[in-house]
Amino acid sequence: MSVEGLIGLWEGASTHPFSPAVGKNSQFAVGFILLLSAFIVSGIFAFNRSLATVPALGIPASLAFGFGAVYMICAVGVYV
């Protein structure tokens, strides 16, 4: 991409400000719900360990825990 293209992209982006998918006021609720669901699903996964439950329970639980932890960290004011 040329310099002129980058300048045009920079100027075009100035008219469209960034708006996050989850607002600052709802980050705590989203993080709490994700963490709570992660603990529940990981508990179910702990009782039913098999190769079939890994994609059905293990992967969603780990994703919910990861995203929930980041949302809770951002909600309480620690920015990553």
Automatic annotation (TrEMBL):
Q: Does the keyword Translocase apply?
A: no
**Principal location class:** membrane
Q: Which keywords does this chain's UniProt record carry?
A: Membrane, Transmembrane, Transmembrane helix
Where is the protein situated, by its record's location annotation? Membrane
Tell me the function of this protein.
Subunit of the oligosaccharyl transferase (OST) complex that catalyzes the initial transfer of a defined glycan (Glc(3)Man(9)GlcNAc(2) in eukaryotes) from the lipid carrier dolichol-pyrophosphate to an asparagine residue within an Asn-X-Ser/Thr consensus motif in nascent polypeptide chains, the first step in protein N-glycosylation. N-glycosylation occurs cotranslationally and the complex associates with the Sec61 complex at the channel-forming translocon complex that mediates protein translocation across the endoplasmic reticulum (ER). All subunits are required for a maximal enzyme activity.
Q: How does it assemble?
A: Component of the oligosaccharyltransferase (OST) complex.
Q: What is this protein called?
A: Dolichyl-diphosphooligosaccharide-protein glycosyltransferase subunit OST5
Instruction: Give the species.
Output: Eremomyces bilateralis CBS 781.70
